[in-house]
């Protein structure tokens, strides 16, 4: 008769299975894959589902974070795998809780800003769901079992070997075996992780790691473990590694440039302080280009309401958007900080923790309420973090709106404007409100019942769809103006409307057909870089068309000039728009526009590699006519990059504070 196995026998068999046959390692991979899959299902991200590549990357990432445990002895391996399970389960669940509130994942900058995580407050209980227990249910067995196996009394291994030196030879063999196994797993993890990611970044996700436009998109490519790995790399690259302090001589040169600019600043002029105490409402309009202003198609005006607003507003007909890879976020940043975009990536995602002289923060110091309105995910472009740094009182995002009229990416602009103005009823005046639209976002979908234009030969094309979407947004402008009047805001509010960037439709034939004339390289460069800027003053004063070159970097200084706030204390690249001084408007590409010339660079380095255009004849002219503008453009781009990258404003202000004490 066979006797039942004793507890010692069972423990011995389990121990051998876990320690010597790598069962513990396989169990770790299975459990963590289960948790990663469960996390993805709990996120409920639209249009993102795990595919074969995602599973391969997930397994590869798990191999990369755990391969080193195979180099350890049996007990050390089991303990390390359990600790990895505890650590990464905690990270996964923290990400899930954070995502349920902020629609984003935890990043290093977030961890450095305890206030953002702490803002969850008492609502954290509502973010915990019963199903979340399945993230931790394995701990009930694994943790006590690991404790028993690790802390049990161990028999001396040398006692099992009868010949001298046999134990040492066997131990050497086991160590080499562990090293080989760990190395092979590491190589396999590298291949499984980086090959699919490289394939994605070379095809459908081109530019993702340069632009870093959305953490959710990064997650969609890299998986959660890969996302956190890249986030650590990104933070180290931008803040720790490869970012030496700027040489003192260069710091002094930047400071001298700003000091010289401050010396030229003037608070005089008929408009300085004329509208002190007025509310300010600024609308950043998606893909709103200058080329459509005043134009018609099929006998219908494309922007009739905007055209009417122009009659009692200041309209800047040569206004440049000055954005880079950050697109919409760059428009937001340049407009509010009067600095320039980075050569790669977005300031919002890369340097949200730097110090800037931004419009909402300055207006808050003047006693204004400052709020931002955007009916989309709050995490997109890292807005939640950036807007907190800009000192807005509140960010009204998608979760604050009733989604009663969805069009395109989110709430229709008509509903967005109406609900935003309703929100403003409860905000103490004077206030600053910044609104970001979405309806005219690529690919410019407008339902049939909302299509009011006869686009003729453009019907069924993306360009035709773009015209329809802009016409719809223009109708929203008309309704917005009427609601402002009904709420008593029309006569005590400075209203600004501008476009954020181009429409990404770059076929010259579309614009030639639309405008009815041939276009050259200068025409196309201006078409793709010019957006409208309209400033309506409370009394409708100073209305007219202003053809001088202007850019987003001029907006904040201009608003504050109207309110009587001098630009002298602030570190801006741009100046206000209400004087007769000639202006140079640099673009991130190295192109620039000034009073008489426009410079268009090429891939060939240096001034001579580009083309200098005479803006009167609109034909190429002597390259030397662009020499001064070329040098100043490079200087301004460099200074802006240095201010952002090396956080120079914090240094300058600390120095200024020390001098006054």
UniProtKB/TrEMBL annotation:
It comes from the Bacteria. It is found in: Cell membrane. Substrate binds at residue 441. The chain crosses the membrane at residues 20-39, 55-74, 81-102, 133-151, 175-195. Mn(2+) binds at residues 286, 328, 500-501. Its main location: membrane. InterPro entries: Alkaline_phosphatase_core_sf (IPR017850), LtaS-like (IPR012160), OpgB/LTA_synthase_biosynth (IPR050448), Sulfatase_N (IPR000917). SUPFAM superfamilies: Alkaline phosphatase-like. One of its GO terms (cellular component) is plasma membrane. The keyword Chloroplast does not apply. The keyword Manganese applies. Pathway: Cell wall biogenesis; lipoteichoic acid biosynthesis. Keywords: Cell membrane, Manganese, Membrane, Metal-binding, Transmembrane, Transmembrane helix. The active site is at 328. Residues 278-565 form the Sulfatase N-terminal domain. Belongs to the LTA synthase family. This is LTA synthase family protein.
